[in-house]
Amino acid sequence: MNTNVNIVVALTHLAQLDELQKHVAYIDLIEARADLIKDLKSIKEKTRLPLAYVIRSKKYGGCFNGTLKERHKLLIEASKSFDFVELEAEHDLNRELLRHIPKRKRRIAWYGGPLHYEMLFAKFEKVVQTPAQTYKFVIHDDSIQGVLPLIRLLNNYKSNDLVAYGVGASNVWTQILSPFLGAPEVHASLDSTEKLAPYFTPKRLVDDYGLPQTYDITQLFGIVGNPVLESISPKLHNASYRSLQLSYLYLPFEVQDFLSFKKEIMDNPNKFPIPINGLTVVAPFKQAAYNYSKYKEITHNKYAMACNGVVRSGNYWRGFSTDAYGAIQALEQLSPHWPHKQIAIIGCGGAGRSIAVSLKRKNPNITMVNRTEATGLDIATALELPFLSFYEFDPSQFDIIIHVTPLGKQKGETPFNIINLNRQATVIDHVYVLDRDTELIQYCISHNIKSMDGKEIARLQIGQQFKHMTGLDMPVHENKVRNVKIN
User: Fold this and answer.
1) What secondary structure letter does DSSP report for 433?
2) pTM
3) Which end of the chain has fewer CB atoms surrounding its CB within 10 Å, N or C?
């Protein structure tokens, strides 16, 4: 059943009013942070959206340090002119204050660290004794296991007035999953640098996850690695699910430790309300994903043992890799005679190794390049390929350069000395940034060097990953990926 939820943002400083205008079409409610903004009049003057008055105490991660009496006076006054008032579960639920604030305006919030499910449920049961329009439970924790009780609570509570999610890099996915489990709203941010704020902007929620519309989910998929929050994978997978009317959802899991993630999420379906049946795996976990896969693509070279995806197969996980597929497809488009060219692969991680093994079957003229010389030499020797340290590498000597290191995401950062590129060369850059081209791709465009950027490489791989996970061909989405440079 399709349901629309509200998209909520918090205003924490007046400079955000300009940013608010860019997203106003997507927003249903604004939380005005009175503990951070002294003059709320300007907010009322610049928007007609419903406003919730929030004056967060220091215990709840805010800046208000007045007395409880002062706080309650401010809340009563705010209830006269604001659409809603946030009441803190541990400070504001006394009878005298509630007498002045009607139920329809109450948004009762609890913010805290991780709790065992029984303790969390007991706290929640106590809070819901006070009638309110919305209940909001937010856990701040950087571990995945810390938010699992919150997800369990949301799934078990069969009502539409509980908002529950986690904040912290490892728990961004809960902010997306929450409305699909029945929460009446999803929280977004106008400033993703705020430590205790949700991560995604309202526009990203709409573009990448199809919100504010939700539907019943039967299977979960996702991308696991670090970093992954800027990946285009969720946007393309979720758009395809909607196009094919599949009851699936694709989430970003940015984690610190793959083994913990596997134990808590992948191998523990009883703790999770919806089964996770497939994952894209990116750096730095490709080797670990391969090691923990029961069934995998067979290779006789231990240095090629890496995968960038796993699919559930009964009680086990089957590993697969699309790194080489993406590189070969790019080469076929850009340089059809690539089997006879001199190729340099920069980066000896899982992707670089997988690509090298596959390309070597058609082209023996491959040189491995790596910044850490000992590691690169060890891998190149095992693959029976020549090696150059990063400091010896001269790009002018190669016809094709495939770049698969993390370098190049920052402005002004290049993975090698790009001014030495051969003007007749072909460049494939696996790195991408959502809102601009990398310095390497910009250079290629300005010097008319044939190139393909990381977003297009990702699109090629994502199509294959989609087929591995669903058994279906991914629909073609025009204008879903931009900045494809094939000159």
Assistant:
1) B
2) 0.91
3) N
